[in-house]
UniProtKB/TrEMBL annotation:
Official protein name in the record: Disulfide bond formation protein DsbA
Lineage: Bacteria, Pseudomonadati, Pseudomonadota, Betaproteobacteria, Burkholderiales
InterPro entries per record: Thioredoxin-like_fold (IPR012336), Thioredoxin-like_sf (IPR036249), Thioredoxin_domain (IPR013766)
Domain of life: Bacteria
The keyword Disulfide bond belongs to this UniProt entry's keyword annotation: yes
Pfam families: Thioredoxin_4 (PF13462)
Signal peptide: none
Limits of the Thioredoxin domain: 9-212
PANTHER family: DISULFIDE BOND FORMATION PROTEIN D (PTHR13887:SF14), GLUTATHIONE S-TRANSFERASE KAPPA (PTHR13887)
Family affiliation: Belongs to the thioredoxin family. DsbA subfamily.
Organism encoding this protein: Orrella marina
Gene3D superfamilies: Glutaredoxin
Length: 216
């Protein structure tokens, strides 16, 4: 019964987070539409994790917080968009550590890249999010107990997470967040264009539009 109640509460929180994200996103886009085009250099950095073919002509940039319930809900669908387009679409992850504990989790993700285990580690982090990412009492250290199943050398990752190169990645992404005026997650851009309205169907439609334009 307790487990069922927890799952129900988690679902309610995710729905509420999605609704709030949609509202904040639309308000943010109203402001962005009054500004110049988004500089490409501030959307994609050399250090940014990429899922999909490097040669893909359509790029989804997602500003992502590991603690964000809506990011967790969107992830399977975004990954499906990449996989469904046979090398024409790629996903670039940018970090937006808005919640307490998120920077610690990003350090772990960056450490996993040094072992070529980024994507399985990310999926473990998202799957276990309800356990470690409580906004009232986040406990990011709990994730270490689940990471061996991702094939990660946990002891090495603990050391690598503290490297200066990891801190530099986080600081650059935070700087770009401020420059781009990103206030909530997930925030999506497709070939430099923000979504006209927040939602998965809107993201899918913009991706399809850009695929048709890039691959006539």
């Amino acid at each position: 019964m307790k487990k069922r109640t927890l799952l129900t509460l988690t679902s309610i929180v995710a729905v509420m987070a999605f609704a709030l994200s949609a509202f904040v996103y639309e308000q943010s886009q109203l402001r962005k539409n009054k500004t110049a085009d988004t500089p490409a250099s501030e959307l994609v950095r050399m250090h940014s994790p990429v899922f999909g073919a490097a040669s893909a002509k359509v790029t989804i940039v997602e500003f992502f917080d590991p603690s964000c319930e809506t990011c967790r809900a969107f992830y399977p669908g975004v990954k499906d968009l990449v996989n469904a387009h046979d090398g024409k679409v790629k996903l670039v992850i940018r970090y937006a550590p808005f919640h307490e504990g998120s920077e610690d989790m990003i350090k772990i993700l960056e450490a996993s890249r040094m072992q070529d285990k980024y994507w399985p580690t990310l999926e473990t982090v998202l799957r276990m999010q309800p356990q470690w990412a409580s906004h009232d009492n986040p406990q990011p250290d709990l994730i270490w107990g689940f990471l061996e199943e991702s094939g990660l050398d946990v002891e090495k990752a603990r050391k690598d997470a503290g490297k200066e190169t990891v801190a530099t990645v986080i600081e650059q992404d935070k700087t770009d967040l401020r420059t781009l005026n990103i206030k909530q997650t997930p925030a999506f851009f497709v070939n430099g264009q923000p979504l006209p309205k927040f939602g998965y169907e809107q993201l899918k439609a913009l991706v399809e539009q850009e695929v048709k334009a890039a691959y006539p």
